[in-house]
Amino acid sequence: MANEVVLLDLKLSPFAARVRIALEEKGIEYKSQVEDLSNKSSTLLKMNPVHQKIPVLIHNGRPICESMVIVQYIDEAWSHKHSLLPSDPYRRAHARFWADYIDKKMYPTGRNLWASEGELKESSKKDLIQCFKILEEELGDKLYFGDESFGYIDLALISFHSFFYTFETLGNWSMVAEFPKLVEWGERCLQKESVSKSLSDQKEVYEVVLQIFKPKLGIE
Amino acid sequence: MANEVVLLDLKLSPFAARVRIALEEKGIEYKSQVEDLSNKSSTLLKMNPVHQKIPVLIHNGRPICESMVIVQYIDEAWSHKHSLLPSDPYRRAHARFWADYIDKKMYPTGRNLWASEGELKESSKKDLIQCFKILEEELGDKLYFGDESFGYIDLALISFHSFFYTFETLGNWSMVAEFPKLVEWGERCLQKESVSKSLSDQKEVYEVVLQIFKPKLGIE
C-alpha cells in the first residue's frame, strides 16, 4: 500500500511540531498542509469534527487527531523504524506519565502569561516555574528524559522549546540561571535535525505573541 | 517474580474505578488500600509526589500514576490476557482519541454542575450535554465503543456511569430521554462483573455530592 501522509499543520504550534519531529525521526515523507485557523479548511472540519483543531495526520485518507495520540500512532504504524517509546511496560508508563504532565501543565499555564491578567497571571507564573522545577529535577543528570537517547518525553517537551524565551521574558525569570539542565538538554535536542528543522525561532514566537496580545500585556 | 499489586484507592473515584475494572478484566489479584484525601498517607505522597492523587498502582514496589496510564500499563504488563486496546495501530489511535476526549470533557465539565455557580455552571451544563451528544453519536448502533466487545473507550467512560444520575438531576435533563443509546450501553456494561463490582451506586454518589456541595447548590 502506498503511504500517503498529509499533516494539517501550523508552523508555530508546539502540538504540530511534535508531529513533525516524530515524522522526521521515522524518516516518513509527508505533505504539510498549513491551516489558516481564522478560516478553517473544509478538510480540517471534516477530518477533526470534534475538536476542529490542528494537528491532524491523514494517513491514506484516515485522520488521526491530538498530538500525542498521533505520535503514538506514528510509532506503532511505522514500528520497523527505531521506537520513540521504550519497549518495557514500566518505562512506557513512565514516559506516558511525563508526556501527560507536560500536556496538562506547560501550555495551559504558560499561555496565561500572555492571555490572562491579574491574579490568574501571577498564579500561573508560579505554577509554570514549579512545573519547570519538577522537570529539571526529573531530568537530573541524564542526557535525555528517557536516558541515553531522544525519546517520547523529550519529544513532548522540546516542542515547547520555541516558547521558552517568551515564558522567561514575560514571566521575568532566566531559564539559564534557574533551569540550567533544561537549557543544556534543549541545546542537545536541537543538535538533532529532526528537532531543529521542526521548531520555530524563539524570538519569532515572542514577536508573534507580542503582536497578538499587546493590549493585554500593556506593552506599547 | 511474585506479583504484588497494591492500589491506592477511593471507592467513589471514577479514576480509581477505571483501574479496578482493568484489574478485574485481567483477573489480577490486588490489595485495595483506601486513602483518606483529607489526610493523605505517607505512601501516597511518596508514590505520587507530583500530583499527590489517587489512583496509584504499585506493582512490586514501583508506582504508576494517572488512571489511563495505569490502564495501558496493566494492558501491556499482563499482555497474555485478553487485550483492552485493539492491536491495529489505527484502531488503537481511535481508542486513545476517545479516552482522551472523555478525560478532557466529562469530569472537568461535569464537576462544574455542583462545584461552580452562575455563568460557568450554565455553560458547563451546555458543554456536558454536547459531550454526551457527541458520545451518543460515536456509539451509534454499536454494542460497545470498540465494536463487539468491551474495551478501552468503554472502560474510560463507564467509570463515570456512577455520576450519570447526579449529572442529569443537577443539570435537569433525562439521560434516558436524551441519550437512550448511552443508557442501554451502560446497562450492557454493568452486566459484566468487572464493571458492576467496581462502580458505586448512582444514588449514593448523588447523596455524597449533595452533602459536600449543599451550600453551593442552594439545597436545604
From TrEMBL, chains A, B:
Catalyses which reaction(s): RX + glutathione = an S-substituted glutathione + a halide anion + H(+)
Superkingdom to which the source organism belongs: Eukaryota
PROSITE patterns, A to Z: GST_CTER (PS50405), GST_NTER (PS50404)
Gene Ontology terms for molecular function: glutathione transferase activity
Keywords of the record: Transferase
Gene3D superfamilies in the cross-refs: 1.20.1050.10, Glutaredoxin
Entry GO terms, CC: cytoplasm
Keyword Magnesium appears in the UniProt entry: no
Key word Transferase present: yes
GST C-terminal domain ranges (all copies): 88-216
A single BP term in Gene Ontology: glutathione metabolic process
InterPro entries named among the record's database cross-references: Glutathione-S-Trfase_C-like, Glutathione-S-Trfase_C_sf, Glutathione_S-Trfase, Glutathione_S-Trfase_N, GST_C, GST_C_Tau, Omega/Tau-like, Thioredoxin-like_sf
Domain GST N-terminal positions: 3-82
Enzyme Commission number(s) of this protein: 2.5.1.18
PANTHER family in alphabetical order: GLUTATHIONE S-TRANSFERASE, GST, SUPERFAMILY, GST DOMAIN CONTAINING, GLUTATHIONE TRANSFERASE
Similarity-based family: Belongs to the GST superfamily.
Protein name, as recorded: glutathione transferase
